[in-house]
Structures are given as structure tokens and as C-alpha cells.
């Protein structure tokens, strides 16, 4: 055995070669390639200890940065791309508010890219305008397919998800199954057994966990020794008009439900409009519960399961900053789950019992 293959720090095998790459430097420094690029490019949001570690690794390996490598993460642009399907909707607006507040404090700017309908979304990922130069990308509450995932990976920047688990990215959201159980278990506790469900349609993959709330409905009923009736499930868009239309369909059944679980508050509010127009009372005739704690939920006295939407955006922003400041990339990207809570108001009561 010769003395040239290793040294006390295990660095000799990585020593100079004309083919040393930025990835070699990143591996030796124990950081991601994007962080190594920022450290060598004097990015303002890289911790000094990380910057020093990367520079020492580069010097040890005789690394010389190429123009392409220095552009790996867009350089120190001070901008974060935010991919959002429907920026005008309350849920996405709340996520953006929390995210923007966290990043603004670190002097980073948000660049919003709308990826709503299928054509718009396809065009965005085909062009990927984020290549214009950003330090990170935040995906807001929609699932990405394999092609989209590969396109994002080609940027070589930090990708974080807010509003639910997306692919293998670090993310922050809620446990959709648990939130659904809180809603349906409440109705079961009141004595309801014929419980309808207004399920959010997911043709645009707007929910990272489209099955979480639906599986909660089925599991809760089975735990209550009640076999789920698929006739009581209506899949509609995630909005008030969808909820109104879905409630009409449930009322058309020979045996309508005594209670309705809506996947979001806006759908629940639409359902309440249909019930009012049909001359039915809530909750005396039919109980209604949603998920979110939308501002209109309190105004309409809607029972719901509250989720901290703005805090999810803020925590996603903190994840971006933590990664930009350096440190080793996690072996398993973190999926932070924030708690939900049942908020009792006036739209639920025992079946057939006047309030």
C-alpha cells in the first residue's frame, strides 16, 4: 500500500485533476452544488462558515470555475421564483403572503409565475422562464409530474414546496388525512351516519395529496361500523360554484345525506347556498363542515377544520433561507406538518335535532 492514496482527511483521492468539477467541490465541502456555486460567487445569503469551507475545498482541489458553473444557480440574483396555479384564490394568496413576508425580511424578491390551466402550465415548463435567473423555486400546492420535476431539476437551484408534500422537495403543509378525520369524526360523534362528501376535483393536480381527505371519509365511516356509500361522493372543482353544483346532485338522491363534508370551505359555502335556495335549514335539516377556516367561515358561522395557511408559506420561506445559507443537503428532504384544529360553529348539530 502506498502513502499516496489517502491522507488523514481523506482528500488525496480527490486531489487535482484537470477534470475537477463544481460537484466535486460541493461533495468535498458537504454542501449542495447550488450552495457551492453561491459560495464561490459571493452570494449574500451564504453563511460565512459555509463560504469558507467551500473555498477551502476549491483551493484544495485546484478548482477553477467555468462561466457555466458560476451560472448554475443563477448567481446571487436575490430573486425567488414562485409557481402558483391560481394567485387570486384565498388559499394561494395566504401562502404567498407568508412566503413574501419571510423572504422580504432577508431582502429577497418574489417573482410570480402563474401555472394555472393545462396549456399555460405546459408552456411554462417548456420555456421554464425561471432560467432567467433565480436563487430558488417555491412550488405552491400542486403536484408535479416526472417531466416537470426533471425540468425543475435542470435549473440546479433549491426547490421547496408549500401547501403540501410535492415530489421529493423539502415541504411544509398539513396532514390532509388527519384534517379529514377531524371533520368526519365530528359529524359521526354528533350521530350522523349518512354523510355526503364534496370531493375536490384534481384534474389539474391542485392538491399534492388528493386522496388524503377522501380516504379519511372512508376510514372514519368504517371505524364507525358504517360502510361508505359511493353514491354520497360527488367530485367537483375546488370552489364555491363547484360546491353548489355538488350539493344539488346530493339533494337529487332518493335518500339525501344528513350531513356533508366538503374538502374546503369555499365548497362548503357553495353547498350552503344551494341548501338555502332549496328551503332547507343548516344545520337543522343538513349539517355542513369544511376545511380551511377561510375568512368567510367565521362570517357565515361555518364549522370547519382550521389550517395555518399563511404559516405554511412563512415556513417554506424559512426552508429556502436555511438552504441558501448553506449546510449539508438533507438525506431525506423534510416534510414539515403543521397542526389543524376543529372549529365548532353553527352549521353542525345532531341529525334531526333543532338547535
TrEMBL record:
What keywords does the record list, in alphabetical order? DNA-binding, Transcription, Transcription regulation
> What is an example of a GO molecular function annotated in this UniProt entry?
transcription cis-regulatory region binding
InterPro entries xrefs? HTH_LacI, LacI/GalR-like_sensor, Lambda_DNA-bd_dom_sf, Peripla_BP_I
Q: Which domain of life is it from?
A: Bacteria
Query: For the HTH lacI-type domain, which residue ranges apply?
Result: 20-74
Write down a Pfam family by its short name.
LacI
Q: What is the designated name of this protein? A: LacI family transcriptional regulator
Q: Which organism is it from?
A: Actinomycetospora cinnamomea
Amino acid at each position: 500500500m502506498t502513502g499516496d492514496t489517502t491522507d488523514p482527511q481523506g482528500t488525496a483521492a480527490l486531489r487535482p485533476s484537470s477534470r475537477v468539477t463544481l460537484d466535486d467541490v460541493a461533495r468535498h465541502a458537504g454542501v449542495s452544488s447550488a450552495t457551492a456555486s453561491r459560495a464561490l460567487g459571493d452570494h449574500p445569503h451564504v453563511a460565512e462558515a459555509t463560504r469558507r469551507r467551500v473555498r477551502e475545498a476549491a483551493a484544495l482541489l485546484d478548482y477553477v470555475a467555468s462561466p457555466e458553473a458560476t451560472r448554475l444557480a443563477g448567481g446571487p440574483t436575490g430573486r425567488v421564483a414562485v409557481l402558483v396555479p391560481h394567485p387570486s384564490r384565498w388559499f394561494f394568496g395566504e401562502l404567498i403572503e407568508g412566503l413574501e413576508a419571510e423572504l422580504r425580511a432577508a431582502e429577497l424578491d418574489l417573482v410570480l409565475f402563474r401555472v394555472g390551466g393545462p396549456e399555460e402550465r405546459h408552456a411554462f415548463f417548456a420555456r421554464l422562464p425561471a432560467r432567467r435567473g433565480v436563487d430558488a423555486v417555491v412550488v405552491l400546492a400542486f403536484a408535479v409530474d416526472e417531466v416537470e420535476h426533471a425540468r425543475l431539476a435542470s435549473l440546479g437551484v433549491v426547490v421547496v414546496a408549500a401547501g403540501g408534500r410535492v415530489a421529493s422537495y423539502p415541504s411544509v403543509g398539513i396532514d390532509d388525512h388527519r384534517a379529514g378525520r377531524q371533520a368526519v369524526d365530528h359529524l359521526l360523534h354528533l350521530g350522523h351516519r349518512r354523510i355526503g362528501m364534496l370531493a375536490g376535483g384534481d384534474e389539474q393536480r391542485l392538491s399534492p395529496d388528493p386522496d388524503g381527505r377522501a380516504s379519511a371519509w372512508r376510514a372514519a365511516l368504517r371505524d364507525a361500523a358504517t360502510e361508505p356509500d359511493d353514491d354520497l361522493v360527488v367530485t367537483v372543482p375546488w370552489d364555491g360554484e363547484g360546491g353548489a353544483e355538488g350539493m344539488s346532485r346530493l339533494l337529487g338522491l332518493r335518500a339525501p345525506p344528513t350531513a356533508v363534508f366538503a374538502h374546503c370551505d369555499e365548497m362548503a359555502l357553495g353547498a350552503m347556498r344551494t341548501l338555502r335556495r332549496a328551503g332547507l335549514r343548516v344545520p337543522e335539516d343538513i349539517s355542513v363542515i369544511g376545511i380551511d377556516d377561510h375568512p368567510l367561515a367565521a362570517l357565515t358561522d361555518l364549522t370547519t377544520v382550521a389550517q395555518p395557511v399563511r404559516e405554511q408559506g412563512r415556513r417554506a420561506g424559512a426552508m429556502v433561507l436555511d438552504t441558501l445559507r448553506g449546510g449539508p443537503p438533507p438525506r431525506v428532504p423534510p416534510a414539515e406538518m403543521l397542526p389543524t384544529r376543529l372549529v365548532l360553529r353553527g352549521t353542525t348539530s345532531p341529525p334531526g335535532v333543532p338547535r
